Task: structure prediction
Amino acid sequence: MFENASWIVHPNNNLYEPVCFFKKLSFKKQVKKAALNITALGCYYSTINGKRVGDFVLAPGFTSRKRVQYQTYDVTKDLKDESTLEILVGDGWYNGKINFGVASNVPKALICQLDILYTDKTKESIVTDGSWMSRRDKLRFAELYDGEIYDSSYEDSPVNARELNHDKKIIVKQQGVYVKEQEKIKPQSIFKAPNGDTIIDFGQNLTGYFEFTVNAKKGDKVEFTVCEELDKDGNFYNENYRDAKARFEYICKDGKNTYKPRLAFWGFRYIRVDSFPCEINDESIHAIVVHSDMKRTGYLESSNALLNQLFSNIIWGQRGNFLDIPTDCPQRDERQGWTGDATVFCKAAAYNYDVEVFFEKWLTDLKLDQGKKGNIPNIIPQTVCWDWSTTENTGAVWGDSATIIPYQIYKMYGNKKILKNQYVTMKRYLGYIASTTKKRYLWYGCEQFGDWLGLDAPSGSYRGSSNEDFIASVFYYNSVKIVAEVSEILGKNREKYDTLAEKILEKTRKTFKEYKTQTECALALYFDIAEDKKAIAKKLNDMIISNGNKLKTGFVGTPFLLHALSKNGYTETAYNLLLQEGFPSWLYSVKQGATTIWEHWDGKNENGEFWSKNMNSFNHYAYGSVADWVYEEACGIKPKLPAFREAIIAPKPTDKLDSLSATLETRNGKIVSKWYHKDGKINYEIETPVKSTIIIGEKRYDVEKGKYTF
Ligand code: BGC
Result:
């Protein structure tokens, strides 16, 4: 593909100024089949005779700079004898602020090949070259953090595109899931804020854009700025977007104007209407939700309305942040593939949605961007500004994305190929730890993120007070154990890794004798580090009770806390944490009106005041990892064999809820686990498509597929 095509650029490329490349096509013979192959260094939006080609938003997506995916569209029906093919290209993820302000020196570029098969069986390929024309577009500005500026009256004189000598070997076939428009959301309300601003509330923190229609005079302006939260007085607040302007500007033509952005996206619940040619109403505008086109597989429902809202927030956290790559957040000047966030959320993500292909693609980028020493950049795809391949550290948990995520994908979907593809990467990662640690058989003395955002952080720090060397060593141990397992699955010798794991365990136990924080206890229990589990589980339970049934954990402790409790006889304490409504807790944010998962437990205090503007996203999925506890422990659905070829269903009910149910569409059919209280008894309704072990209390039932009640 693209052998005869050239990368083309505008002869005077300007950063953030989109360029339209176009070609007039004329066919003398009848077209039987036509396939359009496109990719860009940047993001593209293509049309034939004004009609959009395909529905991939922000194509070609976000990958390592070592590769760029191309897409193929069947355009047979779109071509007429005389046609115009236009492809608008913006800087997208390739260039500019998204790379922490550092622009690459490669201009936005397009490459394209239109393959035609005529009815007389002859073939022709029309490819990008210097005969293509290029012009600056009415879309005058497009940048992912700052938004779009569109001027209806702008006209530019076309000039020939320039061919760019740039590597074509980086071009690969589309591997990931298309990013698509998913849903339209009408305004829930439009109101005047106390300070006089007009604000549209969509009732849901979401990721995507908006579409509006307005009758206007030439030169009239539409101007929007977006935000996630209102301040305590009910006024617009977007200081937490930091350097992302998150704006939109549109200069109207005479008559009817209908527009939706093409080369930007925003994370928002509210739009401040900075100008609009007439009174705005809910017929004038709707929001459009955009994310990777994943199939929903998991559903949770309970008798508690706040808990159901939390389940919804977790789903929306995933919808808002699975936009071609797993991002930390969709709104502020980051939107990066922070690996630690993905590591802790990947299990919940894989219950909620089918994320097999989504992660397969991202892990390929992780493999490509792995550093020379085996280190994993903390952001995948790696940005231009930080060359982690040679200079930067890898944090534990963040780097463990290399082992934990492929292994999770294998367990959920039975995908051995992903293990095969990632095996060398996993081993090199272990090699990196061994080469960087200051104490053999531990991960010790290196720069770490620790229990990121743990509430027991020393003042002014983002890192909880748990011992960072302990956390790193536990995850080192866990990754070595995963590599041992994976070695066996791939038919290789696991012994070396088993021996290494034993040594790490021994040294970790010897070095870290005491577990002082909730996170340390939770990790020691969950990862089988603690020798006297009973004592440590009691200690953890006591710590939580003496803290008023409240947690103090951050990104690292939180995903394992409830598991550690319920696996060691303290299910009720786990439920107390899940159902806690006071600060800090999951339901605290729900009671504060959250519609997604917050980055900080204390993102907003009870008076409606915000935590520091420096780091305060209201759409960060990490703490949504609690969903995996609800699926696996509270409802008890776990894979016994990969892809749920056999299942374990071991629900753990509580008196604190009247009912709870999980439905999971696995690769081997639908599993349902529901329990509810009736007439003083707990009733269970279980449905399994495969041979399963059902555990109810102390009783164990080995069953064939079917529906069961207990
Ligand atoms: C991101 C986090 C990330 C962290 C690591 C933050 O800026 O938003 O989610 O994991 O940095 O340092």
